[in-house]
Amino acid sequence: MESIRLAEFSEAVRDSTLKRLIHVPVGLENWKVSRNAMSFSDVSLHLIE
Fold first, then answer.
1. 2, 9, 16, 33 from 41: Cα distances, Å
2. Alpha carbon of residue 8 to chain centroid
3. Is 16 helix (H, G, I), strand (E, B) or coil?
4. What is the DSSP letter of 34?
5. Which among 20, 36, 37, 41 could bridge 29 via Cys, Cβ 3.0 to 4.6 Å?
6. For each of the chain's 49 residues, which pLDDT tens digit applies?
7. Nearest CA to 21 among 46, 3, 41, 37?
């Protein structure tokens, strides 16, 4: 069923994202690619919302 595949995909994306977020070094949460970019923590919050 397509809804089951979508749920499994969503779970895999969530797990992968959490794995990467956990490995962000302490103190680099507010790192930005450039001055006008969103920080790493801003992007993370955006994904969560």
1. 33, 24, 17, 12
2. 17
3. helix
4. S
5. 41
6. 899 999 999 999 989 988 988 898 999 899 999 999 999 899 888 888 8
7. 41
